[in-house]
């Protein structure tokens, strides 16, 4: 039997976006999934989940969105943790959605990771991050990196993480007006999928690329045009399988001036890279108390 909940107050948690600073595809496994080497960094821009635990066991999400409740990764994460733990507790989750969906910024996976980390605390479960990552990876390949919360190179299909420190530049993230389905990129015959695997220190040296970029640019002219618009001013490339692209800038003013110079059809925002995610920072503060 679990004791009563000792905190029924709502708590606001961040679910930040990520960028894939490089992404190399090293081959395909017999089950069809691809082996990757990718460098994840977090940015300040985030969704926010305000979570109020309850004793009823009921899970609800507000406001209503275009995603059906049972398909929402927040709901799926909460249900998965309930089922794994057998907890009698539930939660109401208010979502402030700031990240574009399906843009390669990992917003859905980040929401799921934040739900797992937050409910682990608010339901007083005390599971390790490794256990939360095992639950989370079934919801999306990128959930473990958001639970890890520190800049890292992911290998395998994304489950093997090595923390690294890199610069924390300002970025312009542009959001081309198209949706790229990850599955379509990975199943396309023209995808670059045999880049030789390299050691971590070798990966960190030299210039960085994304193996999905040539194919996504060819299939989605809006993505090609977005990269062309940014690359005039700063090194720019695709994140994940897109559609978002990012320009790496010298400072905030540089980033803002590039955003201001973007054509009117291209939406975007300015944000700073961070080697510790906002979720990781908040957790560190809470655990110090
Ligand atoms: C490649 C990344 C890099 O961050 O792209 P983005 O989603 O961020 O753009 C992610 O790891 C993606 O993770 P996620 O979006 O969760 O992918 P999933 O839903 O697990 O997979 C969607 C489909 O893509 C293919 N897939 C995905 C990941 C992988 N390593 N190999 C694959 O072949 C599979 O066909 C899978 O059915
Ligand atoms: N809470 C959620 N936020 C965003 N996307 C969600 C959520 N729940 C389910 N999804 C689904 O997951 C897909 C991938 O979302 P997201 O993680 O934002 O993009 P990506 O994997 O391209 O970085 C979306 O297209 C959407 O249909």
Automatic annotation (TrEMBL):
It catalyses: 4-CDP-2-C-methyl-D-erythritol + ATP = 4-CDP-2-C-methyl-D-erythritol 2-phosphate + ADP + H(+). GO terms for molecular function: 4-(cytidine 5'-diphospho)-2-C-methyl-D-erythritol kinase activity. Keywords: ATP-binding, Isoprene biosynthesis, Kinase, Nucleotide-binding, Transferase. Residues 198-265 form the GHMP kinase C-terminal domain. Residues 72-149 form the GHMP kinase N-terminal domain. Its EC number is 2.7.1.148. ATP binds at residues 100-110. It is an enzyme of class 2 (transferase). It comes from the Bacteria. Pfam families: GHMP_kinases_C (PF08544), GHMP_kinases_N (PF00288). Pathway: Isoprenoid biosynthesis; isopentenyl diphosphate biosynthesis via DXP pathway; isopentenyl diphosphate from 1-deoxy-D-xylulose 5-phosphate: step 3/6. The active site is at residues 18, 142. NCBIfam families: ispE. Catalyzes the phosphorylation of the position 2 hydroxy group of 4-diphosphocytidyl-2C-methyl-D-erythritol. Belongs to the GHMP kinase family. IspE subfamily. PANTHER family: 4-DIPHOSPHOCYTIDYL-2-C-METHYL-D-ERYTHRITOL KINASE, CHLOROPLASTIC. This is 4-diphosphocytidyl-2-C-methyl-D-erythritol kinase. It comes from Motilimonas cestriensis.
């Amino acid at each position: 039997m679990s004791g009563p909940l000792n905190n029924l107050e709502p708590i606001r948690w961040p679910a930040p976006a990520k960028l894939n600073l490089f992404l190399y595809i090293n081959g395909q496994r017999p089950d069809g999934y691809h082996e990757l080497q990718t460098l994840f960094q977090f940015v300040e821009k985030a969704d926010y989940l305000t979570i109020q635990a309850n004793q009823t066991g009921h899970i609800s999400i507000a406001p209503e969105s275009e995603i059906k409740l049972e398909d929402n990764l927040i709901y799926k994460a909460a249900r998965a943790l309930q089922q794994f733990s057998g907890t009698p507790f539930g939660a109401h989750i208010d979502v402030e959605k700031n990240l574009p969906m399906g843009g390669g910024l990992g917003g859905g996976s980040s929401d799921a990771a934040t739900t797992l980390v937050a409910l682990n605390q608010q339901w007083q479960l005390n599971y390790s991050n490794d256990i939360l990552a095992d639950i989370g990876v079934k919801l999306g390949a990128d959930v473990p990196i958001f639970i890890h919360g520190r800049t890292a190179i992911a290998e395998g299909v994304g489950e093997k993480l090595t923390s690294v420190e890199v610069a924390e530049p300002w970025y312009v993230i542009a959001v081309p007006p198209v949706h790229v389905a990850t599955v379509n990129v990975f199943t396309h015959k023209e995808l670059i999928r045999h880049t030789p695997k390299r050691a971590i220190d070798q990966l960190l040296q030299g210039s960085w690329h994304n193996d999905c970029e040539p194919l996504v640019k060819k299939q989605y002219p809006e993505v090609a045009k977005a990269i062309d618009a940014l690359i005039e001013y700063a090194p720019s490339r695709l994140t994940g399988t897109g559609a978002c692209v990012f320009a790496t800038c010298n400072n905030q003013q540089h980033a803002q001036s590039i955003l201001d110079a973007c054509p009117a059809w291209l939406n975007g925002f300015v944000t700073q890279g961070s080697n510790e995610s906002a979720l990781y920072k908040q957790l560190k503060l809470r655990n110090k108390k």
